[in-house]
Design brief:
By secondary structure, this protein is α+β, with helices and mostly antiparallel strands. It is built from six helices and six strands. A four-stranded mixed β-sheet has the order 1-4-5-6. The protein has a two-stranded antiparallel sheet with strand order 2-3. Keywords: Membrane, Transmembrane, Transmembrane helix. The chain crosses the membrane at residues 12-35, 55-75.
């Protein structure tokens, strides 16, 4: 998970991909005869292009800057997501609890709650402290108090299972997933 907007990331990736395809086709048309023949049917290509040496150096410098910026973006992105929920060290021994255990405990405790459509558990490393985010999709028209009580009970069970408390952010959400969820029939 990154700290930037998901829509911005997708638009940026689309533009980079589109530019890469265009640049690849242009380079291929200048170097490879089959690519030149294929593109020659669609667009008219010049037979000879002269580019000054300074322009080539400018292009090389721009490419180097783009590569450096891309490397910086790759290494600075990320919201600290981790698969480790708890790590305890005692002397030479170490116990590591994976986020899968936390997901299983929360899912098991929230299974019977009518107003919950689904839940998702992620763990993050925030300022060198491990924390969990529980995203609960509440059914449209569901009782938030009941859901929060069920989540509180699930967190109590999680604390007893782990033997300690971990910081937790509970995020109740609705939306398309909850609107399209099948209603439970009472018989």
């Amino acid at each position: 998970m990154t700290t930037t907007n998901r829509g911005f990331n997708r638009v940026l990736l689309f533009l980079i991909g589109l530019i890469s395809i265009i640049v690849g086709a242009v380079i291929g048309a200048g170097v490879l005869q089959p690519v030149r023949d294929a593109l020659g049917q669609v667009v008219t290509l010049p037979t000879k292009v002269t580019v000054p040496d300074t322009a080539l150096w400018i292009i090389a410098a721009v490419c180097a800057v783009v590569i450096v910026l891309a490397v910086i973006v790759v290494f600075t992105r990320g919201g600290g997501g981790t698969s480790v929920a708890v790590r305890e060290r005692s002397g030479d021994d170490q116990v590591t609890v994976n986020v899968a255990l936390v997901r299983d405990v929360i899912d098991h405790e929230l299974t019977g709650v009518h107003d919950i459509v689904a839940s998702k558990v992620d763990t993050y490393l925030v300022k060198k402290t491990r924390a969990a985010r529980i995203k609960v999709h509440v059914r449209r028209g569901g009782d938030a108090v009941t859901v929060l009580d069920a989540v509180d009970h699930a967190l109590t069970t999680l604390d007893h299972t782990l033997g300690r408390q971990i910081p937790v952010l509970v995020h109740l959400t609705g939306g398309t997933r909850t609107a399209l969820a099948r209603t439970t029939r009472v018989q």
